[in-house]
Design a protein that fits this description.
The chain is of the alpha/beta class. The protein has helices spanning about 15-25, 60-65, 75-80, 120-130, 145-150, 165, 185-190, 195-210; strands at about 5-10, 40-45, 50-55, 70-75, 85-90, 95-100, 115, 135-140, 155-160, 170-180, 180-185. The strands form 2 sheets. Strands 2-3-1-4-11-5 form a 6-stranded mixed sheet. Strands 8-7-9-6-10 form a 5-stranded mixed sheet. Helix 4 links the parallel strand 7 (about 115) and strand 8 (about 135-140).
Length: about 210
């Protein structure tokens, strides 16, 4: 069983898209999409073993070696500071991490900036690079309401279309980084299973390139 590739997939539509890609390049496991209540799915013919995980947990499974490879959003990797290899950008779930606030109001420069966010590490790292003092206000719900109630000066959050910001009188001020799904690998697994993982990686990259034409 040591020659299997163990793959962690994020639950939900993203994971289903990623599995469809992997199936298309020869890493299918029919039982995976059959509605079974099993937790681990194997295909001896293709030498793959899959399991579903909460999206925020995929990087943990990969980093700690429970999975050889997996798929996680760039936002999750940055926020967790995951110690994994980032093999390629799959191009799924494209959006951006941004600083946003009330339309027409600028980020204050004469005081500590109050930042409401679900991503405190990303926010701290970004503003630290700009030598700006900030106070983090950690929220888990609708971040957009924070500036409207004067709980914060700005927010740091994922922006996809910008519609929610616009409808609430907010606008993006600065883009922190692009976000999308990344194929990641455990560092030890990449060393000891390099041939198998690189074969899968090459097939993935070729498939993505071909379908972007």
């Amino acid at each position: 069983m040591n020659d299997y590739i163990n793959i962690a997939l994020p639950k939900g539509r993203l994971g289903e898209k990623v599995y469809a890609l992997l199936e298309s390049i020869g890493y299918g496991c029919p039982e995976l999409m059959g509605g079974s209540r099993k937790l681990i799915f194997e295909n001896p013919e293709n030498k793959v073993r899959y399991f579903w995980a909460k999206p925020s947990d995929v990087a943990v499974y990969v980093e700690r070696g429970a999975a050889d490879i997996g798929v996680a959003g760039k936002d999750i990797l940055l926020e967790a500071g995951s110690d994994v290899y980032e093999l390629c950008d799959l191009g799924f779930g494209k959006c951006r991490m941004a600083v946003a606030g009330i339309k027409g109001v600028r980020i204050p420069t004469d005081k500590t900036i109050r930042v409401a966010t679900k991503f405190p590490k990303i926010a701290r790292d970004y503003f630290a690079k700009q030598s700006r003092d900030i106070e983090i206000i950690k929220l888990n719900g609708s971040i957009e309401i924070a500036p409207l109630l004067d709980l914060s000066d700005v927010i740091v959050d994922i922006v996809e279309t910008g519609t929610t910001l616009k409808e609430n009188g907010l606008e993006p001020y600065e883009t922190i980084c692009p976000i999308s799904a990344r194929l990641i690998a455990n560092k030890a697994a990449y060393k000891f299973k390099s041939d198998s993982i690189n074969e899968l990686l090459k097939a993935t990259v070729d498939y993505i390139s071909e379908n972007r034409k």
